[in-house]
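Journal club side-thread
Mid-discussion, someone asked how the predicted structure for our own chain would compare to the paper's figures. Pasting it here so we can look after the session.
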Amino acid sequence: MRAVVTDSVLEQLLPLLSSHVDELKTQSLPEAGSTEDMLIHTLFRTCYAPSMAPQLANAKQAWPAFLEFLSGANGVPETWGSVERAQAYVQQLSFEQLAQGFTDGLGSKAVAQITSCLIRVAVRGNAYVMAGGVSLRDLFNRVQLDAVTAADEISAIAGRLGDDENKSKKARAASEPSELPELATLLEYVQNSSVGTDTALVPALVSLLSVFVGADAGRHGTQAYVMQLVLGMLTRVFEAATAAHIVVPESVVRVDTIVQAIRTSSSPQTHNQTLLLLAAVAAQHPDVVLHHVMAIFTFMGANVLRQDDEYSFHVIQQTLERVIPPLVQHGGSRAEQIAQAGPVLRVFVDTLTHIPRHRRMALFSTLVRTMGADSYAAAVVELLLEKNVARVLKGGRETDDVLAFTLSLTHELEAAQQLQCVEQVLLDVAALPADAVKNTELAAGIVQYADVARMSGGELRTFRLVALDYAHQLLTSRQFGSKLGALQGAADAQLSGTAQTQLQLIAQLSAQHAQVEAGGLLDTDVAARAWKQTVQLAYAVLDDVNALMRLQLFVSTVVQLLGHDDLKVRRKALALANTRLSEVDARTADADDVLKLLAPVAAVAAAELDTSDERESLACKQAALLCVATAARRFAAARPTQFTDLVAIISGAHSLGATQAAVASAAMVALAVLCDQLGPRLIPMLPTYLPLVLKHLRAATAQLETASADDLALLI
């Protein structure tokens, strides 16, 4: 009979089927396998055969009847009477037909109607599944919506929910919230279907999310769950699209709505799911997410960062790794980097003490790695040091913890990155103002991650001390020394640069110390002691750097510094050279390396006086001549030829022949040491230096003869 079913035959069979179903409602169900049972099964399978599905979908009577059969009872029956049993019996027959591929030939509209029926059945719980019968789960797996139809269904419910939200409070309270359970079921169904990651769902899901964001969060208990379903589906759609190199149009992405979802919800699960969605969106549209980055991380600082569970930590890592890169990939000037990244970094630093201790290191390591250690490690360190300053001044017990954490965080970096970090910190310390900035224009010109413009004089002094103490502890630590040694000289250039930076810092600190002292700003013992400790600690850091440098590197660094534009830096480089010359044994191979300093040092001694800063230039020449004397005392006897050549340089017009008594006196001392060490070897050179020596002696004698008793007392 099935093979010859036509529209006319169908019109005759359907009334027959309906009459048998009506009879079932007034009597007991037929026994399985009975003639009546087999007849009804045959009629149902014939009328609603899969091959007839396309015709049935357009039938005015047959299709509504099938949907009615499929829907079953209206709600869960309190008692299973004959009517309810008949409805369940026919419903199971409908299930069996669907399981046979009834929907394969149907259009999207008809499939959507069937899906809606199944969802209502699932929500009402009125499916009476007989033993061995077809379950709802089987049907949901068999009936598949296409993505566009699924999106339309979601949009339709979103529209009804949106209209409901626009009603008065009284009307809202009286309305039946059945949309939410049905919506939850629909979303679960779509999520687990083959179209669950289709990008066509995005507009509908975003629209639905906007309804929830604007809704009363406490209206329905199901709302938080449905919201998490929406967020989870959107996250999977974006992740799948990214993996397949499909870009979701930016026009349908409402990041402001997603961010608002964080703010309007009090559920930690919703918070985490929203952050994961933002991370997924950032993978495709980083610039769009970037506009809301501060809102995202401010929220994280107040909520998620304080959570102590693995999933929340996973969410934070995902958010950092996806949202941070677009923040830093554009580079820009240091001022632009500070303006963009500074507030985000400060959120994490300010929340440090609220983050569980055992998660701090992993979190900040991820932050530094994601931001880029080369560019932002020093920024994180400086903000941590600034936090430490506040605790030091307040006498907090956790100051050591913050500094220890800062050092441990730096130890997570490679040795070269640690050096780069220290050098940047030292550069920023050198750029600090001498005292509190009271001029608004000057404050605006300060480019620092730390909030220097708002620091008091005491806070600035403490920040210098804390920063230098950090550098000192890091450079002298065993962990850093081991990592640096493993590089086998690969970090020489950085070490040399750090030494130069530290010399510049010392020169700057000395100048600032003199400035505040002259300005009467050292009006307390605390301030004076802080400046003294700062300068001492700066020299200690310089010693630390020198101790890390091989002799050859030290020599090349000092030679380079002797040509520095800043005379103060030159003078301090000469002091370093003098110290190293006095430490090397003439009998070792190191003597050959250290004596490479002689020529550039002698060149400073023989150079013409710099009239732009005569005082500092005189000090440089004296320091250079002192170096020559030190070198002669230790090495001249063993290397006479090398030092004999120095006599002509020392006897030049700008050294021994200089009109400045301080320079000439220093040259006389150097010459005396050379004569003492070289002895008769200098006899051939007597015409070079002796006339100048005699000239200075005659001048000194004449000065003594004309000096008063008081002057003589001073000389003595």
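Post-session note: The first helix runs from residue 7 to 24.
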